[in-house]
């Protein structure tokens, strides 16, 4: 701070600096993406019961709180493989006519 006072010659320079950094911080907070009610990036959603897990799987395509695009690539690849395997299993389960 002494260097700031020496360079500017203004005794209020530290106050101006503090206000400027507060504005920078406020802009940073304003630009952040809202993440409440969503799993942390890189982690899968946590469930407590088997019923919650089943509901999550059934509604994962329409659930606005679950965005697979936010997950790391390995999780996306695993999800894509699981979806492909589920589609193959469904196709095999349907009898051919």
The unreliable regions are: none
The overall average pLDDT, rounded, is 80
Spell the H/E element sequence: HHHH
First-last Cα distance: 82 Å
**What form results from the Cα inertia axes?**
rod-shaped
Q: What's the alpha carbon Rg, rounded to whole Å?
A: 25 Å
Helix percentage range: 55-70%
Q: Count the helices. How many?
A: 4
Note the main sheet.
none
Query: What proportion of the residues form beta strands (DSSP E)?
Result: under 5%
Give me the count of strands. Answer: 0
Please give the oligomerization state of what you see.
Answer: single chain
Structural class: mainly alpha
Sequence-ordered SSE layout with sheet pairings:
Blueprint: H1 2-8, H2 13-31, H3 50-59, H4 73-93
Explain what the structure shows.
The protein contains 4 helices and no strands. It has helices spanning 2-8, 13-31, 50-59, 73-93. The longest helix is centred in the last third of the chain and has 21 residues, at 73-93.
For this entry, give a set of tags:
mainly alpha; 59% helix; rod-shaped; single chain; 0% strand; 4 helices
Structure described in brief:
By secondary structure, the protein is mainly alpha-helical. It has helices spanning 2-8, 13-31, 50-59, 73-93.
